[in-house]
Amino acid sequence: MEEKTLSKAMEIFSILISGEEIEKNRPGTAELYQTYYANADVYELVTKMLARLNISIYEYNETLFVTAGEGNKVFGYTNDDLKRILGLRKNRELYLVYFIIYQALLYFYTDSATYQVKEYVRFEELLQVVGQAAERITPETEVFNRTTTEQEGFRSVALLWHELPLMINEDKDRNKASRGSRYGFVKLTMNFLQGEKLFLAAEDRFYPTDRFRAIAEGYFEDGKGRIFQLLDETPGMPEDGAGKQADPAD
Q: What is the CA radius of gyration of the chain?
């Protein structure tokens, strides 16, 4: 392999692995974008290096993005990482954040045939969407025994949603997100997604970024609707970062 080919592949790899994007029309990355697609050896080397590190590469709007693959503990987040970042204590609180993220994804994408249906989501709309999804999972929350539901996957998360008040006084501060209300959990989740450059906020509207769309559309192409399987498989929760099933009550 020529040294020039390896050098270009490493340059592209290093930019992507640092969390930056490579854009076709941006000075500084335009030449790298062209090289990635025009040079078969560079393309193959970059994709192989990323694959070995369990990192997926996606393109959207003539821009290259990467994201950690499922179970990637080096470049992704473990459950414990996310609980620390979000200030959460219990697993089912974290799973509620996951649930809200799922609903935000499904608001814009139902499957690969429904790309770019909506431009943005209002905060109140997302709050309503999450509530409706929780209601579908536990339409009669009073019939569930707490000990039993803590072992029933998303039903436990939905029950937590129903236990929370809609708002508390702390929610009136636009700069704070609490764990004490439904409103607070949605705000906490959206703040995190903005920090990950997946959404931009304007007033009460959240606009998905190109990074979000690249990952979402890549997910539906590669994952074949795994999200729906997770939502349907209520008997089990997602595994924690250590690879064992986490008790929602922890």
A: 20
- Predicted model pTM: 0.77
Q: Exposed/middle/buried for 131, CB within 10 Å: 0-12, 13-18, 19+?
A: middle
Q: Cα–Cα distance between 69 and 75 in angstroms, integer?
A: 9
Give the number of other Cβ atoms within 10 Å of residue 223's Cβ: 12
Give the separation between CA 27 and CA 10, rounded to whole angstroms.
19
Chain position carrying tokens 């922890």: 250
- Per residue in 46-88, pLDDT (tens digit) is 999 999 999 999 999 999 999 888 777 778 888 899 999 999 9
pLDDT digits (tens, 9 = 90+) for 167-203: 887 766 666 677 889 999 999 999 999 999 999 999 8
